[in-house]
Structures are given as structure tokens and as C-alpha cells.
Amino acid sequence: MALGNLTWVTEFILVGVSDDPELQIPLFLVFLVLYVLTMAGNLGIITLTSVDPQLQTPMYFFLRHLAIINLCNSTVIAPKMLVNFLVTKKIISYYGCAAQLGGFLVFIVAEIFMLAAMAYDRYVAICNPLLYAVVVSPKLCCLLVSLTYLQSLITALTVSSCVFSVSYCSSNTINHFYCDNVPLLALSCSDTSIPETAVFTFSGTNLFFSMTIVIISYFNIVITILRIHSTEGRQKAFSTCASHMIAVVVFYGTLLFMYLQPRTNHSLDTDKMASVFYTLVIPMLNPLIYSLRNKTVKDALKRFLENPCRSLKLM
């Protein structure tokens, strides 16, 4: 095609979860409920871990940041997604699309490393309980959280810059409900080898290092728990990391399902379903996982509901 015949893209059209007109309102209601529950649950965790004196420990410090990440990740995606269920033209501007991709990458990478930091916290708490207060100090907690956000920002800036450095012309329909790198690169009319390499490198590196930390931590945790002679002791040790183990399995299971699919079975529709899970469902589930299985959090919620004004004054 001659350069003079190319129309450069200034906006994109998002296909959404489904392009069936009859499903738009039912899907809007379903995802609205998911988003409201996500907002309520994560804001609840943020509030409780900020005001309750018994939740001022490294474990709940990391949990508070995980809730912030989940809340922000859903907010980057859900509002635009909900609006698009109700309008005919599902348009997002070129720069809006770039901002959404960057925001998504910041918070998905931050979640990967925050779960790894939480795994390390549980490893020290169970395997070296006498040194826990010394090893997992407030300074180390702040350092781990800072490094998590720094790596997520580096990843987001590099990958989104590479994705939007290629040319988009003529075709502007994204087969997704938000701006993701794979469907975006599929629309490019120029060479995509550099952004594809950047996506593969950062995705692989981030997953490898975070999963290595998680696997080593839980390998040692399991060995330590098995060495405990009393059943009551094993149950108590297991209960301190059970919620985090569930969250890790659900989150990493979804990511591995996406990235380890054979190329012959891989499709953008499958990506969309997996994306719904880790951008909207998991952020909604995490507060439930950490509250329903955690007596300390449930007790903190009870104290907060009994006297919310007093609790808020402690912030």
C-alpha cells in the first residue's frame, strides 16, 4: 500500500467482552456489581489496615498495598469498560489508549512483585520467627514496596513506549475490552519485532523472578511446617499463610494459563476471558480471601463497625 493511501489512527474502537447487542445490558450489570464489590472490599482492607492497631504489622502493610494495587488496576479498566456497554461507538483516543495500557502494566506488574514480597514475609515469619521483627523491619518493608513500584513503572514506561512507537494505520478495531499490547500490536502496519521483544523480555523476566521468590519461599515454608511435630502447631503455621497461598495460586494460575498456552490453541478471545479474571475477578476475590479466612481481620472489622468514628480518628 502506498504511503499516501494510509490513514493514520487517532482513536481506537474497543470490541469489548462481547459484540452481541443483547448481552450489553446484562454484562454491564454483572461487571458493575463486580466493580462495586472490588471497590468496597479493597477500600475496606485499606481502611482497616490503616486504622486498627492490631493490623500494624509487615503482613498487613503489604496487604494494604496489594489492596491499593487491586483497586487501581480495576479502576484503570472498569469505568471505560462499563461506559462502552452503554454506548454504540466504543471509542478510546490514541493517547487514552496509551495511558490505559501504561496504567494496566504498572499495576499488574506491581501485583506480581507484591505477592512475591508477601511470600518472603510469610517465609521469614514461619521459618525464622525469632528473627522476624529484626529481618522484616519497617525499613525493609518500605524498600520492598518502593522497588515493586519502581520495577512496575520501568516496565510500563518501556513496554508502552515500544508498543506505541510503531505505526497504526487504517485498521483501528481492538479485539479486547481494554488497550492491551497483544491486540494492539496485531493492528500495526509496521515492524513489531522490537515491541514484541520488549513485551516478551519484561513479561518473562518479571514472572521468572517473582515466581522464583514465591516458589523458594513456599518450598521452605512447607518443609518447616512438615517438621512441626504437633498437629495443632502445623495447623497454626499453615493458617498464617493459607490466605496468601490461595491468592498466589489463583493469580499465577491465571497468568500461566495465558502465557503457557500452545500457539495453536491461543486466541484473543481466550485472552479476554483470562483478562476479565485478573483485572476484575481477582481484585474482587482478594479482600474476601484475606478477610473470610483471617480471624484478625474479621475482629478488626467488628471493632471498626462498633465504633467507626473512633477508628477513623486513629488514622
From TrEMBL:
Domain G-protein coupled receptors family 1 profile, chain residue ranges per copy: 41-290
GO cellular component, one term: plasma membrane
Keywords assigned: Cell membrane, G-protein coupled receptor, Membrane, Olfaction, Receptor, Sensory transduction, Transducer, Transmembrane, Transmembrane helix
Subcellular location(s) per record: Cell membrane; Membrane
InterPro entries with a match to the protein in the record: GPCR_Rhodpsn, GPCR_Rhodpsn_7TM, Olfact_rcpt
Highest rank taxon of the organism: Eukaryota
Pfam families to which the protein is assigned, alphabetical: 7tm_4
Main location: membrane
Gene Ontology MF annotations: G protein-coupled receptor activity; olfactory receptor activity
PANTHER family associated with the record: OLFACTORY RECEPTOR
Family listed: Belongs to the G-protein coupled receptor 1 family.
Name of this protein: Olfactory receptor
Protein's organism: Sapajus apella
